[in-house]
Amino acid sequence: MFSQKISDLINQVEKIGKLKPISQKELLFLLEKCIHGETLEIDEIIELINSTISYENKKLILDFSINYKRPHDQEVLLLPPLYFSSICENKCLYCDFSSSKGMRLSYDEFLNEFNALLDMGYRSIELVSSQDPGLYIKKSSDSDTQLYDIYKAAKYFDIAKKSLEEKGSGMLTSNIPPVDIQSFKKLKSVGLDCYLSWLETFNTNQYPRLHYSNGPKADQAFRLDSFDKAIEAGIEHIAGAFLKGLYNWREEEAILYLFDKYLKTRNGRGFSIIGTPRLKGLIRKSKSVSSYLVSDEDYELNIALDRILFDGILWLQTRESFMFNNKLITDYGGGVILTLTSCTSPGGYHKLSKEKAQFPVFKQNLHKSVNALENAGYKAIFNWNSQTLLDFQRRI
Fold it and tell me: Would you say residue 31 lies in a domain?
């Protein structure tokens, strides 16, 4: 499992920022290897990421990425989140759910919210929940084992699947707590197409500083290894990311690449989606993270690298303004997922949510944003499914 490798990898990527940057010729060689399907070795990914501390190399990466065409680069897949619970037994320092009691949508409320998104034209929807102990019921008294009864959580997916089937087709992505293999199999049986988990930070020293020691999320290894379990359960797609701003983004980027490489080697496939979340909110002033904040300039550089390094497609989210996301699409091309409609508290589509949001998002006018994309020559796609996501993957 990847959790058994993480400490060694962290020790190795700590060289980033301390080495002499490679020449532009050497960097170009590594970039060309990536886009031609040759997997980089650990020393090569370290050299590549380390090279970004040089202004000349940084500019080379940006220019290379601008001129590199990804599949379906004139199309943008739209994907909204639907939160069904914000009740959480984790108390993550960077999450606003930790300071509220939270609430859970009833099944009828959830159906109304889901149908509201369907009425907007969406057919691919992300179902999101916190670590709600009433939905993810611990079956084991052993603190080192996480086995769950998820029949109550699975009901939301079942409702969503049936509503999608009435519309013809669609896709369900989950952003829920990691679970055991049998629970993943249950979720697959009720319509889960893509398991998503934001890994927050890979660093094993920083991770426990940000997570409540008595919450299930404190078990970093369980989270890291959940992708292997999801794949073993037969879930077709997986999506991963780190939260930019919790730790040194260059080291995190290198480990995300090595994680993708590990998944491909062990399971024959890696991440279908590469998330791009950046830390927002008051937590940015905390001494625990303030030295790791990611500027717009570095964020753009990270996006440029993602387009080169990964076969999976990028997901641009409403943590960033539409103006910024639109600039990234205009400069680097489409072939990405984009969130326009977004509420990060339970509900918010059929009925205005009064609950506390998980994190601040930029409010965007759906129709104006779609028109802006289309006027720039891009096709915004509401109706897409698991096969669409497969078609958007980079093929060497």
Answer: no
Helix (H, G, I), strand (E, B) or coil at 268: coil
Residue 33 has pLDDT above 90, yes or no: yes
Q: In a 3-state reduction of DSSP, which class is residue 89?
A: coil
pLDDT of residue 395: 82
What distance in Å separates the CA atoms of residue 364 and residue 368, rounded to the nearest whole number? 8
The whole-number pLDDT of residue 353 equals 76
Kindly report which listed range (85-99, 111-125, 152-166, 329-343) carries the lowest average pLDDT score.
Answer: 85-99
Task: Say if CB 47 and CB 77 are below 8 A apart.
Answer: no
6 in a domain, yes or no?
no
Instruction: Determine contact, residues 226/179, Cβ cutoff 8 Å.
Output: yes
Would you say residue 57 lies in a domain?
no
**Total number of residues shown for the chain:** 396
Q: What contacts 24+ positions apart, CB below 8 Å, involve 361-365?
A: 361/317, 361/318, 361/319, 362/318, 362/319, 362/320, 362/321, 362/322, 364/318, 364/321, 364/322, 364/340
CA atoms of 378 and 340, how far apart (whole Å)? 15
Whose CA is closest to 216, among 92, 344, 357, 346?
A: 92
Domain hosting residue 255, numbered range: 72-391
Q: Per-residue pLDDT tens for 251-278?
A: 999 999 999 999 999 999 999 999 999 9
- Please name which of 103, 126, 92 lies closest in space to residue 279, comparing C-alpha atoms: 92
CATH assignment of the domain containing 380:
3.20.20.70
Predicted TM-score (pTM) of this structure:
0.95
In single-letter form, the type of residue at position 56 comes to: E
Segment 310-364, tens digit of pLDDT: 999 999 999 999 999 999 999 999 999 999 998 888 988 988 777 776 667 777 8
Number of domains in the chain: 1
Please tell me the distance from the alpha carbon of residue 19 to that of residue 53, in angstroms, as a whole number: 10
**27 falls within a domain:** no
For residue 149, give both structure tokens. Answer: 């009864």
